[in-house]
Write the structure tokens for this entry.
Amino acid sequence: MINWAPFHLDVYMAMKLHQLKYLIAIADNNLSITAAAAKIYTSQPGISKQLRLLEDELQIKIFERNGKQLVGITTLGEEIINRSRKVLQEVNNIKRLTSDSSAHTHGSFTIATTQTQAQYVLPQVFLNFHKQYPNLRIDLQQGSTDHVIELLNKQIVDFAIASGNEELGADIIKIPCYQWDRVLLFPQEHPLGDLVKPTLTDLTKYPIVTYHAGEKGNSSFVNSCRAEKLEPNIVFTARNADIIKTYVKRGFGVGIIAGMAFDPQADRDLIGYSTKNILPRCTTWLAFNKNLFLRKYMKDFIQLFAPHISEEDYKRYLFQDNLSPLNLINKKGQPQVSKLPMHEMWHI
């Protein structure tokens, strides 16, 4: 157990904020001082000097070394970097607090999300949001769910929007917003088109083209198949629904994509079949660091993105820990299921 008794606020006061910024930049750039310097637009010698000064001041080693090369982070270094992130976030919160009363909000609002959300769900939300805050720049970063979570944990973005049952950690507030079903896709002449209700057994007879499962390999589709002692033949994965549709059209296999990514008119050369009877529904969530100061425009964005989330529900997620993604606690302290809308019924 690490003894943090000597590590009081006065130690942080003696530090320079830019030193903490340098630590985080090094950690976030694979321990490369050169890459860190380029990322934050400063010099490599400057970062190296400040790192030496900081380690001398604290009388500890934050990074493990092999000669002059950084090869790892010490246990104590991990704690210092995590706390440094919180310190810098509080500094940003103070800046936001002093400017939140401004009638004309400026600056940038950073959100990380997946391709499906960015292309099929968020455009109208952002359009409405931009009308309210025309002077606020929206910085949208796309990636896999794993990448989105990484950006959130490193506090590179304000909000993250993705889908799945991933655990995001004790420092993250995760608000479920809506549910959706996946769609099976296959060409018009495919044998699955002759079936009234295709099953998982029918599906696993054919090659599968679907989303990449991420670094952890967590796939509810694969888990559902294995629960029935079936092994899907996944021959191609991608992070983009349009790419999956392209390969399905070329006869590569049967596709599985998010329901909102299938347009019967635009994709009329494919048959789309809902998986609501054979696969569990997916939940899209919005998440942010619990230490983040939520400015008015952030709260307004949540209201635009998930207007069905009441203020009472919102506060429960904000102030109660360890809530199940689909459960809230009622006034009697008993769990109650939150009735999330399906995306098809949710007009934004």
